[in-house]
Hints:
By secondary structure, this protein is of the alpha+beta class. It has helices at about 15-30, 50, 60-65, 210, 215-220, 255-260, and strands spanning about 95-105, 115-120, 145-150, 155-160, 165, 175, 180-185, 195-200, 225, 240, 245.
Amino acid sequence: MNPLAVPARELEPQSVISSEMAALDAGYRGAGVTETQPRLDYPPYRSSLARHPGRAAYDVDPETIERCAPCFGARDVEPLDADLTVGHPGAPIGERTVVTGRVLDGDGRPVRRQLVEIWQANAAGRYAHGRDQHPAPLDPNFTGAGRCLTDDDGWYRFQTIKPGPYPWRNHRNAWRPAHLHFSVFGTAFTQRLVTQLYFPGDPLFALDPIYQSIVDPRARDRLVAAYDHDVTSHEWATGYRWDIVLTGPGQTPLDAEAQDGDGA
């Protein structure tokens, strides 16, 4: 969550980070190639240089990985697992939001009965996790994790609280745009896709090196949900639509944080 544990007075200003991002953007536009995934080495994202894998991948026994792989819970997925606003003594603080969409393959076909998991910060921008020491309030009625299975047409649906932005120690006055983390497992843990959903119109997009590490603007746009008034419910919750594409040229970009080993 805060990848650089150095005093704030030693951090570089946003202007340095923004200048570096602008130079990389100009270089990408002039290169005449298309990159649809985050760059592993993206210097404005300072810790990316040291934290991504430095050696080529090699084959391992998938069953060995799956026996120690993380997951939410040891029971079957229940319908209420997709509602992050219930299960506590009171209601969580913040803007109730419904996020829904389809999980699709590269040919636009629905991916059925897939486990979709989300985790997020609360409305104040704080995770219910011991590593997060951001001085924002915890919400006793919000733990920020949920899951569901896609239906026969590939649809998932979550009700949650819109997360707040939060600071991180990449540079001085660095703030992450509001986002939800998504995980889609496929048929085995080794096929897991971890990505992020962002909300439209966030003023922090242009300042955030994690978001900007996807240097192609069209690929970046695939991480931004669309407000959907038909999903919005009267006097209850705003609604957003966001499809996840697993393969092909329109594939949803990976989570740059997860590639670097953070995922928060």
